[in-house]
Structures are given as C-alpha cells and as structure tokens.
C-alpha cells in the first residue's frame, strides 16, 4: 500500500551521523524519510527549500532540538518532481548563520558523490 514515489540515498557523512543517534531520534529520522519516500507532496514541516541554493532540508524536531539534513534532488530541479533524493549532511540547528557552512559541506559531499557516479560509468 505504501508504494514508494522516491528512492533515497545516503552519503557516508549522513550514515555516520545517523549511526550515532539514539534510538528515539533515529525513529524520528526514519519517520521523516518514510514521508519523503511515500508522499509526492511533502509538508514544509518536513521538507523545505533552502532559498538561493539547489538544496532542500529535511526537518526533524525533537523537543527544543531542531535537527536538519541537507538533501538534494538527484534527477530534477524540483524536489516534488524528483524520484531520487540524496541525504548529504545533518546538524543540530543553532543559528541561521551556521547554514552557510553546512551548505558548503553539502556542496563538497555532492561533488564527491557526483565524481563517484562518473567513475562508476567509466
């Protein structure tokens, strides 16, 4: 019944972050990822465009902690039209200033990922 509309992929950085989460937080991440996988239209409470960038953020709220994962629509400019999404890097949101550094980290990870894809084709 819950047919997937999107396939998700994880960077090594995301995998490492996720592996270090406690069980309750991991469950919340899994819930948001399930929404991303199974719903064409995802509420902004869970996924929001990062203005001025090619990225989106998956949003996980845990009490007073706001966790974010920067994601990239692999096969489309628009997240909603994408069938493949890459989870790049995650962090606990402390201020809006920190986004610039996290976006730069996401760009580096994406560049490595895209380089790896090209090497796979060779």
Describe this structure in words.
The chain contains 3 helices and 5 strands; from the N terminus they run βααββββα. The N and C termini lie far apart (38 Å). The model has no long low-confidence stretch (mean pLDDT 91). The radius of gyration is 14 Å and the shape is globular. The protein has a single domain (7-121), classed as 2-Layer Sandwich (YaeB-like fold). It is an alpha+beta fold and 122 residues long. A hairpin with a 2-residue loop joins strand 3 and strand 4 (65-73). The longest helix is centred in the C-terminal third of the chain and has 24 residues, at 98-121. A 5-stranded mixed beta sheet has the order 1-5-4-3-2, with helices on both faces.
General form: globular
Strand content: 25-35%
Number of strands: 5
CATH superfamily: RelE-like
Q: How are the strands ordered across the major sheet? A: 1-5-4-3-2
The arrangement of helices and strands along the chain is EHHEEEEH
What's the overall average pLDDT, rounded? 91
How far apart are the first and last residues' alpha carbons, in Å? 38 Å
The CATH architecture = 2-Layer Sandwich
Per the CATH scheme, the topology name is YaeB-like fold
CATH class: Alpha Beta
Helical content stands at 25-40%
Helix/sheet category: alpha+beta
């Amino acid at each position: 019944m819950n047919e997937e509309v999107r396939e998700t992929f994880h960077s090594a950085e995301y995998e490492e972050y996720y592996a270090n989460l406690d069980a309750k937080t991991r469950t919340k991440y899994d819930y948001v990822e399930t929404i991303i996988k199974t719903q064409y239209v995802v509420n902004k409470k869970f996924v929001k465009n990062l203005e001025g960038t090619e990225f989106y953020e998956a949003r996980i709220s845990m009490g007073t902690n706001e966790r974010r994962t920067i994601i990239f629509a692999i096969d489309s400019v628009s997240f909603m039209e994408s069938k493949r999404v890459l989870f790049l890097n995650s962090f606990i949101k402390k201020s809006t200033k920190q986004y610039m550094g996290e976006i730069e980290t996401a760009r580096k990870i994406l560049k490595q990922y895209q380089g790896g894809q090209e090497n796979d084709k060779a």
